[in-house]
Design goal:
Elements (H helix, E strand, L loop, with lengths): L1 H7 L5 H10 L6 H11 L36 E11 L2 E10 L4 E8 L4 H15 L5 E4 L3 H4 L1 H9 L3 E4 L9 H15 L7 H18 L11 H13 L1
Parallel strand pairs: 1-4, 4-5
Antiparallel strand pairs: 1-2, 2-3
Helix pairs in contact: 2-3, 4-6, 7-8
């Protein structure tokens, strides 16, 4: 059972695996889980090991984008990434999914940890909003995007996974551009006391300023919402 939990999310550490097993109705202590994981050599992808220079794991999808971040219609190509941000309370992680066509953020999940569930929740939110089928979802090789939980969610909803190459900074340049805007307009504005304070600020900036007020040259000086609205009206005629 511990092997199944770790396979679903390679980022799970000892305490997370213990909690997952308890939720499944199994009575176990962290000491017992440690012995089981040690015997099976199961370690979190984020565990720090002395003298070990950890690299991104092998891709579970081909690179279908090859740095061509363009789309001719909504839901043709989504890109995603996870970023971490510091508060006085500790780190806050945000998984964001952007539609390349309009640059709209179609799904996101923000929390104090970054297991695969963070990425899965963001993906499900995007699916609930857009009802997409056949969309290509491009990411880096982070363990959250390689997890069984994320891959199975893609397959279950008819989405197509794509992954960039190791060490190629341009492979998710479009998402990096948005992250830079978020950093400049929200995160660097002041010191954040709590995770909830920062979470609300991120959501507010995305939903009000970025989506509805920030005009972009790539969109003909329209906002993401305006760009999609005009496209929908033109194709409904």
């Amino acid at each position: 059972m511990a092997i199944d939990v770790h396979s679903d999310d390679p980022a799970f550490g000892l305490s997370f695996i213990t909690d997952e097993l308890k939720e499944k109705g199994l009575s176990c202590s962290e000491n017992r889980v440690w012995r089981l994981c040690s015997a099976q050599r199961l370690w979190s992808n984020h565990a720090k090991k002395r003298g070990l220079n950890r690299r991104p794991g092998p891709p579970v999808h081909d690179d279908l984008v090859e740095r061509d971040f363009t789309a001719t219609r909504p839901n043709e190509l989504w890109i995603t990434d996870i970023t971490e941000h510091q508060t006085s309370e500790g780190k806050l992680y945000a998984c964001l999914i952007q539609d390349v066509f309009s640059k709209r953020i179609v799904g996101y999940s923000i929390g104090p940890r970054m297991p695969a569930a963070l990425a899965v929740t963001a993906l499900k939110n995007a699916i609930d909003l857009r009802g997409a089928h056949g969309t290509t979802v491009h990411s880096d090789r982070g363990s959250q995007f390689r997890s069984n939980a994320f891959v199975s969610t893609l397959k279950r909803h008819g989405l197509v996974g794509s992954m960039g190459r190791v060490g190629a900074c341009g492979d998710n340049a479009a998402m990096e551009s948005f992250n830079s805007l978020l950093q400049k307009n929200v995160l660097n504005q002041r010191r954040w006391a709590t995770r909830e304070e920062l979470r609300l600020a991120i959501v507010r900036w995305i939903e009000t300023t970025y989506h509805r007020r920030r005009r972009q040259r790539e969109l003909g000086k329209l906002t993401p919402i305006e760009y999609e609205t005009i496209y929908s009206a033109a194709n409904a005629a």
